[in-house]
Structure formats: C-alpha cells, structure tokens
Amino acid sequence: MKEAKVLFSNDVLLENEKVMKLDYSLIESISETDKSPYYGVRVTKYLDGQIETDEVAGLSASREKVVGILKKLCEYEVTPISLVEILDCIQTMEDMDILDELIMQGV
User: Fold this and answer.
1) pTM of the model
2) In this structure, are residues 7 and 67 in contact, taking their beta carbons and an 8 Å threshold?
3) Strands 19-30 and 50-60
4) Cβ(54)–Cβ(43) under 8 Å?
5) How many domains does the chain have?
6) Beta-sheet strands, E only, within 1-107
7) Are 50 and 80 in contact (CB under 8 A)?
8) Range of the domain at 23
C-alpha cells in the first residue's frame, strides 16, 4: 500500500506572468517482506489546467532523510521533469560525502 501526503508547496511566478504551482509529497509504502515503512517523493506541477507528476517511491527507510530531500526540492523549485536527475545528483553527492568521510578516517 502506498500513501502520499503533500508536505510543501510553491507558487512560482513565471516570466510570462503565469503561476505554476508545485506540490512536494512524501510517499510512505510498507515493505511486503518485513512490513517496515520506506519513503519516497512525488512532485506535482499544475499549470494552465494541466497536471504533470513524477515520483520515486523507494528512496530511504528514514522518514527524516526523505523530508529533508523534499524540503530541498521545494526550496529549489524542482519540477517533475527534472526530479529523477536531481535525486540522482543528491544520491551521488551523499555517496561522495560518505566516501570522503571514510577516506578522512583512514578506512
């Protein structure tokens, strides 16, 4: 079962004076194997009566981590079309931070 809840929203004024609304939702799913929750994100764009959405369901088992990601997506006005690329960049940066930390520890 998957449940989505809007946590953040943006109204973005475009150059042509139109307003684009962006909703950033937390997706909570339950693992079929061990019944534990895992979290993802959904970004929905509303513009000119059109709705565009994209989501990534299984980012992390940490709700706090995914809420932090949603906050960044909202802050930088990420749209559905760039969601997957941005999440890939965030994951790569986190992986590099972990690698840097291990190198600093001499592992």
Assistant:
1) 0.84
2) yes
3) unpaired
4) yes
5) 1
6) 2-13, 19-30, 37-47, 50-60
7) no
8) 2-105
